[in-house]
Structure formats: structure tokens, C-alpha cells
Amino acid sequence: MSESPSYKDRKVITIGVVSELTGLSERQIRYYEERKLVFPERSQKGNRKYSFTDVELLIDIANKREEGVQTYEIRQDMIRAEKRKEKKMRQHLLRGEINARFGIQKER
User: Fold this and answer.
1) 32: how many CB neighbours lie within 10 A of its CB?
2) Keyword annotations for this protein (predicted)?
3) What is the pLDDT of residues 52-82, one digit of tens each?
């Protein structure tokens, strides 16, 4: 049984609604997609669909842009954060494998 994504991660919001929620123009939102800062899904008709998580991310991006941070810098920060997250996950998995191999159990 697969877990369904939380309501925050479900891509159901149209670009018009995202524009209203964030105060960004539809063109700005599309530009951030072009710069690989946000990744909407597409409906069968090709319309962009965003999640509440995407809306929060777009607000964060807009705030950083207002502070003068370039989109390239924002993207690099996102890449570094993703690499840290992946490294932490690998460490967690490796720790679990070692614990399973040697029969080490967590103390409660």
C-alpha cells in the first residue's frame, strides 16, 4: 500500500490561483520554472498545477529576490540543501544496515 502525498504536496492549484496567493505575476512564476526553481506538474490539457509547498517556495523565492539574491544563487542553495538531505538519508540508511547486520537495537 503506497502512501498518498500530504495535502501540501498534492499538485492541484492552477497558476492563476498561485499568482493570487503569492502576489507574483504568472510570467514571474513561469520564469522561476524556467530557472528550475519550481517544478509544477502538467494536467492532461497541459496546464501547470502547483502544490501548497510550491506556493510556500515561491513566496520564499520572491522574498529572496526582494533582498537582491539572484536566481542562480537561489538554485545553488537549493542544490546544496538537496545534497545535504541526500547525504543525511544515506547516513541514516547505512546506520540501519549496520544495526541490522550486527543486531544492534535502539535503546528506548
Assistant:
1) 23
2) DNA-binding, Repressor, Transcription, Transcription regulation
3) 999 999 999 999 999 999 999 999 999 999 9
What are the residue ranges of helices labelled H in the chain?
15-22, 26-34, 52-66, 71-102
CA distance 8 to 3: 14
For residue 43, give the C-alpha cell.
Answer: 494536467
User: What span, in angstroms and rounded, lies between the C-alpha atoms of 94 and 108?
Assistant: 20
Higher local confidence (pLDDT), 53 or 107 = 53
Cα within 13 Å of Cα(10), Cβ side: 6
When pLDDT is cut at 50, 70 and 90, the band that residue 107 belongs to is low
Q: Which residue has the cell 510556500?
A: 56
Predicted TM-score (pTM) of this structure? 0.77
Q: Residue 49: helix, strand or coil by DSSP? A: strand
Question: What's phi and psi for 49, nearest 5 deg?
Answer: -130, 130
